[in-house]
């Protein structure tokens, strides 16, 4: 994109603060794959010149992307596209704790991996048509903490965006799944919406978690989004209500 074209695009959104316009332009570059996860962005001076703004304006736009976890600043090295394999990113979307108040990072066992047709709930979450065709990947896993079952995990992914994902890739990685998505399909999850519900264990969940059918469970539903606020994952986890709880706090509130 030429500087003239970029300036015109910025002026089109003149009611939006300039740093947010620059922020949006950077996200569009990321969505096009101009800078991939783990790669370094040009210097602040180069980006400021490219976008036709002052360096302090550019820094404000980058600062919000750093705060949201999309970008990562490394002291003395520059700004990079964040990867989910980093320690901070591993816990970025993790809000489930044990009764000992430890945030859990469970081990994952793949149980099934298959193409399927989206049901009504998944189709709505992922904005897919229900035409009867196999348009999603449906993945089931068991999550364990210290070799004890912690949660069941069901994931639904839009097949068109995850053609490169395989069961072997999931089994062969100890990283969180968002790192696997990055490595195999170039999909970068940048935010999630979660809802938490009190529920009772269905027989299949009870067997997996080794609890009684009808016992209380914590049902955590999530929709994950990539650039452009595009949904790329719908997941449901069931945790034993006696062993785990959900906790989220907003820094700076």
Describe this structure in words.
The chain has a 6-stranded antiparallel β-sheet. Helix 2 crosses helix 4. A hairpin with a 3-residue loop joins strand 8 and strand 9. It is α+β, with helices and mostly antiparallel strands and 253 residues long. It is built from 9 helices and 10 strands. The radius of gyration is 20 Å and the shape is globular. The chain folds into 2 domains: 3-81, Winged helix-like DNA-binding domain superfamily/Winged helix DNA-binding domain (Arc Repressor Mutant, subunit A), CATH 1.10.10.10; 87-246, Chorismate lyase.
Mean pLDDT over all positions: 88
The CATH architecture term of the largest domain is 3-Layer(aba) Sandwich
Question: What is the CATH domain class of the largest domain?
Answer: Alpha Beta
Strand order of the largest sheet: 4-5-6-9-8-7
Q: Give the low-confidence spans.
A: none
| Silhouette | globular
The CATH superfamily of the largest domain appears as: Chorismate lyase-like
How many domain modules? 2
N-to-C CA distance: 38 Å
| Fraction of residues in β-strands | 25-35%
The CATH topology assignment of the largest domain is: Chorismate lyase
Count of helical segments? 9
Based on helices, strands and strand pairing, what is the structural class?
A: alpha+beta
Question: Radius of gyration from the CA trace?
Answer: 20 Å
Counting DSSP E segments of at least 2 residues, the number of strands comes to 10
Output the helix-strand order. HHHHEEHEEHEEHHEHEEE
Helical content stands at 25-40%
Largest sheet: 6 strands, antiparallel
């Amino acid at each position: 994109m030429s500087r003239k074209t970029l300036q015109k695009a910025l002026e089109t959104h003149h009611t939006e603060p300039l740093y947010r316009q620059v922020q949006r332009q950077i996200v569009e570059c990321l969505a096009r794959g101009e800078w991939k996860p783990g790669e370094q962005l040009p210097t602040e001076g180069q980006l400021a010149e490219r976008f036709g703004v002052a360096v302090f304006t550019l820094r404000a736009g980058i600062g919000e992307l750093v705060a949201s976890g999309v970008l990562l600043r490394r002291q003395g090295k520059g700004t990079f596209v964040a990867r989910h394999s980093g320690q901070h990113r591993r816990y970025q979307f993790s809000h489930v704790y044990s009764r000992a108040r430890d945030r859990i990072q469970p081990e994952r066992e793949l149980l099934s991996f298959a193409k399927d047709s989206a049901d009504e709930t998944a189709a709505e979450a992922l904005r897919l048509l229900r035409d009867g065709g196999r348009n999603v990947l449906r993945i089931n896993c068991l999550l364990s903490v210290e070799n004890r079952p912690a949660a069941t995990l069901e994931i639904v992914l839009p097949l068109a965006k995850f053609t490169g994902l395989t069961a072997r890739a999931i089994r062969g990685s100890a990283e969180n799944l968002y790192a696997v998505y990055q490595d195999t399909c170039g999909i970068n999850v940048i935010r999630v919406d979660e809802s938490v519900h009190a529920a009772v264990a269905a027989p299949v969940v009870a067997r997996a978690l080794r609890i009684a059918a009808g016992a209380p469970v914590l049902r955590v539903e999530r929709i994950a989004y990539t650039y452009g606020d595009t949904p790329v994952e719908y997941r449901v986890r069931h945790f034993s209500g006696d062993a785990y709880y959900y906790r989220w706090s907003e820094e700076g509130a």
